Amino acid sequence: xxxxxxxxxxxxxxxxxxxxxxxxxxxxxxxxxxxxxxxxxxxxxxxxxxxxxxxxxxxxxxxxxxxxxxxxxxxxxxxxxxxxxxxxxxxxxxxxxxxxxxxxxxxxxxxxxxxxxxxxxxxxxxxxxxxxxxxxxxxxxxxxxxxxxxxxxxxxxxxxxxxxxxxxxxxxxxxxxxxxxxxxxxxxxxxxxxxxxxxxxxxxxxxxxxxxxxxxxxxxxxxxxxxxxxxxxxxxxxxxxxxxxxxxxxxxxxxxxxxxxxxxxxxxxxxxxxxxxxxxxxxxxxxxxxxxxxxxxxxxxxxxxxxxxxxxxxxxxxxxxxxxxxxxxxxxxxxxxxxxxxxxx
Length: 345
What we know:
Layout: E1 3-9, H1 16-26, E2 30-35, H2 42-51, E3 56-59, H3 67-75, H4 79-82, E4 86-89, E5 94-98, H5 105-111, E6 117-124, H6 138-141, E7 144-145, E8 156-164, E9 171-172, E10 177-178, E11 191-192, H7 201-204, E12 214-216, E13 224-228, H8 234-243, H9 256-260, E14 266-267, H10 275-286, H11 289-310, H12 313-324, H13 330-338
Parallel strand pairs: 1-2, 1-4, 2-3, 6-11, 6-13
Antiparallel strand pairs: 4-8, 5-13, 6-8, 7-14, 8-12, 9-10
């Protein structure tokens, strides 16, 4: 089975080897990376991995700001996609945690009855007061999340989707594929959640704009969950924030994104079953001296960027604000205040 993972990256160098090694354990056979404007050596590490036949690395073709969608449009025409049995579109902070069989994508596909698409709900893992970046597996460091059935007062949680080669594809989206609006009912794809149940009709046909990329998570994760480490350490979050192009000058920093993903009420260490083989796979990649050197350079660049940012007053303020921020999402905080209840600490 050929399974191709597609992702877009910018300054993700310290995290590449873990993500590649992890997905190789899942059964991913091919990787298509698009990069843009990297300043930490991400592109050089990907070039070295490409030279060894481990990944395919292309410059992001976007001419404007729509990097992900332009890359996915380009990916559709690449042979590495055309020759795949399945395509997995995900980001480098997302890890597919499979709970069935041998923990591989083929086992998930079998458990779901081999449909043409499988959508897996996110579970957002909190920072959990981890300040310092450490060159250790992300899946080892962060083990707490929100209740996986409920996020920010919503029962519907975003998904990412595995897509089979014969899906009647119009185009790939970042969260799910789309087919033609007028596709006859008899030709609509078979599509399940990660419990093997058919997805809801309005999600299937993209009828509800608020539910195009999400559906209720309760009961939908029997066979898999998508662990999303959107925050990682506070150090890495500051660097991630700098990577974007939001101009904070003369404007207060908005900590909503952080608070929405920093609910640490739930402990889930189930993904750590992959840790022993992950370490073995990462060690095999790092046994190549050039790969190890480029990884170390990316780590050093990440730390240097953190130090550069924390020399600036606005980033010192951001760091202090995030440390002090409530671990409740703003929606829950507002409800507690409206009901006159004591906030949870």
